[in-house]
Amino acid sequence: MRAIWTAVAVAMGVGLAAGTASCSQQHAPDVHQHGMTTVVASTDVWGSVASAVTGDHATVKSIITNPADDPHSFEASPADAAAITDASLVVYNGGGYDHWVDDVLSGHQGVATVNAYSLLPGTTPQPTNEHVFYDLGIAKAVATQIADRLSATDAADADAYRANAVEFGKRTDEILQIEHAIGQTHPGAAVVATEPVAHYLLVNSGVVDKTPEGFSKAIEADTDPSPADLAALLDLITTHQVSALVYNSQTQTDVTKKIQDTAQEASVPIVTVTETLPNGTDYLTWQRQAAQELASQLDKAAPTNR
Questions:
Q1: Which of 27, 177, 196, 275 is surrounded by the fewest CB atoms within 10 Å?
Q2: Which whole number is the average pLDDT over 118-138?
Q3: What is the pTM of this model?
Q4: Residue 66 class from Cβ within 10 Å (0-12 exposed, 13-18 middle, 19+ buried)?
């Protein structure tokens, strides 16, 4: 799936909350009093998770910080590759989402890494989806692994890394409670989605995704969905068989615009999601807002024709 990023997304920018080490596009890491500990993240999303763990004890650099850059088709520059191979730790999504990191690491087996996708349970009942940054359990596991990896090489700051990871985990658990409450408040709620970006948010919330499988596969493969699959999706909206549309605002095509227009005409609520951090927002705030947005829009939904 290759996203086609809009001008709106470019304007959004990215940022991390105050009090965390900032992600930067600069390639020269800062030198800290305990030496040079540098964490390189594939995207600002994972950079934000890393910053929550490191605090001011390490430099965190994110390769992709511009919403206009598609992680699927991104090509690492020589400077990016050097940053990855020189890092104390590399944190990336995996699952093919940021394959260019694997390409760089393939020739440098000794670099310490945390691959978020690899942390999915081996017995996951749902079909796997590479957008694991919407899975709070995975983010919590990533934070723990970051703390463990850095503690092994920076013993002086080990207590701080582990304490920060524990605090991060507590906050993800709080957001998970919000997600679980959605399913309890809206049992059997169903949606359709322009892309399966928020798959794990829906799974954790107990919300059924009724998007035709052929439609989702076509979007993931960056091809046009068949007329039959598109018609089936639109029919779910117009006949009110779903409570909401989940819409990735950073991807707009003629197909997604038609779906959005159809939902608006049918008065079906729209849940807006993104793949990158909104300006001035850290990971936890972003995920909390996504859960609250889903809950809010489902509250507005009319009874469905199941």
A1: 177
A2: 85
A3: 0.85
A4: middle
Token match 């009319």: residue?
302
pLDDT in tens, 33-50: 345 899 999 999 999 999
* Residues present in the chain in total: 306
Contact call for residues 291 and 175 (beta carbons, < 8 A): yes
Calculate Rg over the CA atoms of the chain.
20
Determine the Cα–Cα distance for residues 242 and 112; give it in Å rounded to an integer: 44
Place of tokens 């079909």: 127
Q: How many CB atoms lie within 10 A of CB 304?
A: 17
DSSP 16: -
Angle at 24 between CA 89 and CA 120, to 5 degrees: 45
Distance CA 186, CA 50 (A): 34
pLDDT digits (tens, 9 = 90+) for 167-214: 999 999 999 999 999 999 999 999 999 999 999 999 999 999 999 999
Strands 244-248 and 208-209: unpaired
- Put residue 19 in one of left, alpha, beta given phi > 0 → left and psi -120 to 50 → alpha: left
Domains (ranges, CATH) in the chain? 7-178 (3.40.50.1980), 182-300 (3.40.50.1980)
What are the CA-CA distances from residue 44 to residues 14, 39, 177, 212 (Å)? Answer: 7, 12, 25, 31
Whether 51 contacts 22, CB under 8 Å: yes
Residues near 28 by beta carbon (within 8 Å), at least 6 away in sequence: none
pLDDT at 13 over 80: no
Q: Which residue carries 């469905």 as its tokens? A: 304
Query: Kind and range of the H or E element at 190?
Result: strand 190-193
- The pLDDT score that the predictor gives to residue 1 is 43
